[in-house]
């Protein structure tokens, strides 16, 4: 009994039963053309295939929707009333087959979401009371230690607290190569161990994991409507009743009921209605497989129109990990170690990102920095003034020295200019009103930054502009290296917003790529806000218009290219649907197209539209190999200096 129920609920059950009844009726009618039994079997075939159609039509009418099911229902019932039993059975049978095929192929277009759900782990091995216990993944508690063995799925988001291993993170970031994990690294639910043994402290469980948020986001995105789809829905709401009125008018005018009923079937806008959503589902699904989350159809459609991309420098074009690149001693009585130690002591009370780089550099060289200065006075846009028990230390730019009336800055000016031209942020240090030296802090340009710019232009983007708060010399050095079209430096967050608004005023559709904090105003103003490395940020996954899950710049041009392909696919589908309906209507009016043939062609057009959309599920062509753009270190005659391949991340506030 259970087997029968399972079979009868299968999408193919109704078409099979209806088809067998039609074959039986045709055999009976072949023997006896006027046989009542044969006609009864044919009507039974129409009822089996058409019952669900009529029910759906009534439900739609209850919701004040005049849809395709109503057109087919009226046509089939009318055909039975006038004795055209074969036409009624053929129309409903073909519609049932078309519905089953549509369901099957639409499920295929949602395969990316199904794949994400499939990687969700069901079980977890946790350490409880010193023992390993296998429990459902949803039962893991925050803070518990989860064990990840070779070949196992990671059941939680967490932090590695012990062991080493390699994880396949393709389900999250789209990255095909396994990623090595060591103590302190983050891991994500749904990733798979490719070797090693990891102990992970759970920081996200159940619905609070990155994978769960991605699945939720993709579900919402695939159901969200593009502007074109909203228009087509409105068009269909008027088109379907118009076809019914036209069929009624034609029937009254010609007294040809069959012609009127045929027009109802031919006029079904099925392919037109499905042309856009099926492309959106496939496009967003393909993007999700590649580690690109697009918020919905509207944002996908806008992304296809992007003509300008604004990028932040620090953490986007550069690695976002500033390091000391140069230590230049200018005072004859001071050593390199002393200069670096004094700078680190001064920065001990600072919250600026560059402070961490200087303190870390001192620590690497064995210079212990303990305690805080007696006073730390930030000087906005210039640097800091620090008082210790022994010295007054100034650390910043030339404007800071001028404010405190420090003399003899010619040598410091020359060195600072050289460092800035080489791509480092120079910080001049003065001890007790005497210029002691210059320290350069820099950030490495991402190796794929140049290739990203090339790929963006290839994807149809006209302008790539860098917006940064850094000094012009440093920003220009990065700009030359990466090949961006324009550099705007020394910008405050509100200046970046103004820059994006200015691009929009010039007619550009702008995408802004940033870290979501300092760049928040510009990201909100841009037509499309893009977050990079979003796998580690729940906020970015939920709010960014496009979230690049991995830390891969080349995903940006890939996202824009996919958006353009998807919109082109939508246009192709609309053209297929309109041409098919137009030709069929012409065929009906000129004669030669029957109700059954019309339904057959109509269902074929629906399938063609779906299959065309499924082409988007194929992986896009690989991007060109990333350009390795980092500058080479160049030895110099001065042992205290090195020209670095690092480039500056930011200036002081």
UniProtKB/TrEMBL annotation:
<dbReference type="InterPro" id="IPR023214">
    <property type="entry name" value="HAD_sf"/>
</dbReference>
<comment type="similarity">
    <text>Belongs to the cation transport ATPase (P-type) (TC 3.A.3) family. Type IB subfamily.</text>
</comment>
<dbReference type="InterPro" id="IPR023298">
    <property type="entry name" value="ATPase_P-typ_TM_dom_sf"/>
</dbReference>
<keyword id="KW-1003">Cell membrane</keyword>
<dbReference type="InterPro" id="IPR023299">
    <property type="entry name" value="ATPase_P-typ_cyto_dom_N"/>
</dbReference>
<dbReference type="InterPro" id="IPR036412">
    <property type="entry name" value="HAD-like_sf"/>
</dbReference>
<dbReference type="InterPro" id="IPR027256">
    <property type="entry name" value="P-typ_ATPase_IB"/>
</dbReference>
<dbReference type="Pfam" id="PF00702">
    <property type="entry name" value="Hydrolase"/>
</dbReference>
<feature type="transmembrane region" description="Helical">
    <location>
        <begin position="235"/>
        <end position="253"/>
    </location>
</feature>
<keyword id="KW-0472">Membrane</keyword>
<keyword id="KW-0479">Metal-binding</keyword>
<feature type="transmembrane region" description="Helical">
    <location>
        <begin position="574"/>
        <end position="593"/>
    </location>
</feature>
<keyword id="KW-1133">Transmembrane helix</keyword>
<dbReference type="InterPro" id="IPR008250">
    <property type="entry name" value="ATPase_P-typ_transduc_dom_A_sf"/>
</dbReference>
<feature type="transmembrane region" description="Helical">
    <location>
        <begin position="259"/>
        <end position="285"/>
    </location>
</feature>
<dbReference type="InterPro" id="IPR044492">
    <property type="entry name" value="P_typ_ATPase_HD_dom"/>
</dbReference>
<feature type="region of interest" description="Disordered">
    <location>
        <begin position="625"/>
        <end position="653"/>
    </location>
</feature>
<dbReference type="InterPro" id="IPR018303">
    <property type="entry name" value="ATPase_P-typ_P_site"/>
</dbReference>
<dbReference type="InterPro" id="IPR001757">
    <property type="entry name" value="P_typ_ATPase"/>
</dbReference>
<keyword id="KW-0812">Transmembrane</keyword>
<keyword id="KW-0547">Nucleotide-binding</keyword>
<protein>
    <submittedName>
        <fullName>Heavy metal translocating P-type ATPase</fullName>
    </submittedName>
</protein>
<feature type="transmembrane region" description="Helical">
    <location>
        <begin position="12"/>
        <end position="31"/>
    </location>
</feature>
<dbReference type="Pfam" id="PF00122">
    <property type="entry name" value="E1-E2_ATPase"/>
</dbReference>
<keyword id="KW-0067">ATP-binding</keyword>
<feature type="domain" description="P-type ATPase A">
    <location>
        <begin position="120"/>
        <end position="219"/>
    </location>
</feature>
<keyword id="KW-1278">Translocase</keyword>
<dbReference type="InterPro" id="IPR059000">
    <property type="entry name" value="ATPase_P-type_domA"/>
</dbReference>
<feature type="compositionally biased region" description="Polar residues">
    <location>
        <begin position="634"/>
        <end position="653"/>
    </location>
</feature>
<dbReference type="InterPro" id="IPR051014">
    <property type="entry name" value="Cation_Transport_ATPase_IB"/>
</dbReference>
